[in-house]
Amino acid sequence: MKNKLDKKWVHNHVNNFYVKLAKKEGYRARSIYKLQEIDAKEKLIQPGQIIVDLGSSPGSWSQYIRQKLSYNNKNINGTIIALDILKMKPIPNVNFILGDFRNKCTINNLKKILNGRKLDLILSDISPNLSGISVIDSANIKCIINVILEFTKEYIKPSGSILLKCFYGNNYKEIFHKFYCIFKSVSLKKPKASHKNSSEIFLLGKKLKNKQLN
Ligand SMILES: C[S@@+](CC[C@H](N)C(=O)[O-])C[C@H]1O[C@@H](n2cnc3c(N)ncnc32)[C@H](O)[C@@H]1O
């Protein structure tokens, strides 16, 4: 019981720390620190890139990407497309698509903005609403991840990367396996802002394997 309470205290403490920091630094969510830590090490976001931010609301990842691509306070060098099933308060230079990524029409709207171009970087922080029933939740997570991976195979540049949030659960081995089939380099990331007791984990895939190239 004590142990459980301690764990809960640590969890809340870590959450509160990042929530306060995000507020202080003008970010819309504490998730920013997950992306920031991974990006600091992996140098994922570079000027000139075409980037999609899936599951973008309320918008802290898009805020961070915009800062990284900004060359003065007004303009950016690159393209940012954010997408979420929920509304997002506008961010300058960020194209926002409101829609469920599992729907064809949402992907068609994304294709319109891409206008034949391919993506350098796909970021997904999508978390489907959890029901608490593990079979249903695992199936929903698997479904959205499969849609993201099919999209990735078609719309990412051969040199591109994907950072995808997933969860340890019934399907995670299958998801890792798919990553290894698609990308030359695969690694797992667990940033400090993601509490160590949570099943959340980020998969990073870099460069398409030859057989995926169109
Ligand atoms: C953890 S939040 C993302 C936080 C965001 N990265 C930020 O920094 O502000 C997860 C988001 O995934 C979105 N989401 C869940 N299922 C989705 C789907 N099928 N299509 C698009 N967005 C989805 C949710 O609406 C939610 O806003």
Automatic annotation (TrEMBL):
HAMAP family per the UniProt record, alphabetical: RNA_methyltr_E
GO cellular component, one term: cytoplasm
Lineage: Bacteria, Pseudomonadati, Pseudomonadota, Betaproteobacteria, Candidatus Profftella
Organism: Candidatus Profftella armatura (Diaphorina cf. continua)
InterPro entries (alphabetical): RNA_methyltr_RlmE, RNA_MeTrfase_FtsJ_dom, rRNA-MeTfrase_E, SAM-dependent_MTases_sf
Enzyme Commission number, as recorded: 2.1.1.166
Intracellular or extracellular location(s): Cytoplasm
One Gene Ontology molecular-function label: rRNA (uridine-2'-O-)-methyltransferase activity
Keywords: Cytoplasm, Methyltransferase, rRNA processing, S-adenosyl-L-methionine, Transferase
PANTHER family (alphabetical): RIBOSOMAL RNA METHYLTRANSFERASE, RRNA METHYLTRANSFERASE 2, MITOCHONDRIAL
Domain Ribosomal RNA methyltransferase FtsJ residue range list: 27-207
Residues reported to bind S-adenosyl-L-methionine: G59, W61, D84, D100, D125
Keyword NAD found: no
List of catalytic residues: K165
The name this protein goes by in its record: Ribosomal RNA large subunit methyltransferase E
Reactions this protein catalyses: uridine(2552) in 23S rRNA + S-adenosyl-L-methionine = 2'-O-methyluridine(2552) in 23S rRNA + S-adenosyl-L-homocysteine + H(+)
Family: Belongs to the class I-like SAM-binding methyltransferase superfamily. RNA methyltransferase RlmE family.
